[in-house]
Amino acid sequence: MQTFTALRLLILIAVAVSEAFTAPAQVTLQAPATSQASNARKLTGRFLHITDMHPDPHYKPHTSIYKSCHRKNPKKKRDRAGFWGTPFEECDSPLRLTDFTLRYLDKHWSSEIDFVIWTGDNARHDEDRKIPRTTDEIYDLNRAVAKKMEKIFLNKGIPVIPSIGNNDVWPHVIFFVCDSSIPG
């Protein structure tokens, strides 16, 4: 039985490795040739890495950090969600924070970078059982962040190298389905 299980595990690993090597190459998002950025940009030797923004359209300031910052007004101030977010708690980012951050980058940094590495996680975590994530929400949040990347960077001729994060897919956090009977 152990030999059979080990063989199944070996086959599973072989399939995963072969899929990794046969996946299509990563494609950099480039600004259209007709954009206002057709002038050559002076290279600075700097790049920007944007990741794990986790914008949450359901975030509400002053709600409970124990309810994903979505509902209930706790009595203790330390248990309340902040206006600009709640670091180190089980809450994702309020839209006002992600929007402010991207506007700040646009105003203060977009002229100082050569390219952007954008490694996803543009959707909120699925921590709130009363407000479960839907595929529409995931796709809408991905589209909204992509439009902002286009406006802030691509339209200025700054290439964006995207990658999908584990929270940008459905089902949540799952990239590879495997046989759960295989011992881990």
Automatic annotation (TrEMBL):
<protein>
    <recommendedName>
        <fullName>Calcineurin-like phosphoesterase domain-containing protein</fullName>
    </recommendedName>
</protein>
<keyword id="KW-0732">Signal</keyword>
<feature type="signal peptide">
    <location>
        <begin position="1"/>
        <end position="20"/>
    </location>
</feature>
<dbReference type="Pfam" id="PF00149">
    <property type="entry name" value="Metallophos"/>
</dbReference>
<dbReference type="GO" id="GO:0000298">
    <property type="term" value="F:endopolyphosphatase activity"/>
</dbReference>
<dbReference type="InterPro" id="IPR029052">
    <property type="entry name" value="Metallo-depent_PP-like"/>
</dbReference>
<dbReference type="GO" id="GO:0008081">
    <property type="term" value="F:phosphoric diester hydrolase activity"/>
</dbReference>
<dbReference type="GO" id="GO:0006798">
    <property type="term" value="P:polyphosphate catabolic process"/>
</dbReference>
<keyword id="KW-0378">Hydrolase</keyword>
<dbReference type="InterPro" id="IPR004843">
    <property type="entry name" value="Calcineurin-like_PHP"/>
</dbReference>
<dbReference type="GO" id="GO:0004309">
    <property type="term" value="F:exopolyphosphatase activity"/>
</dbReference>
<feature type="domain" description="Calcineurin-like phosphoesterase">
    <location>
        <begin position="46"/>
        <end position="168"/>
    </location>
</feature>
<dbReference type="GO" id="GO:0005615">
    <property type="term" value="C:extracellular space"/>
</dbReference>
<keyword id="KW-0325">Glycoprotein</keyword>
<dbReference type="GO" id="GO:0000324">
    <property type="term" value="C:fungal-type vacuole"/>
</dbReference>
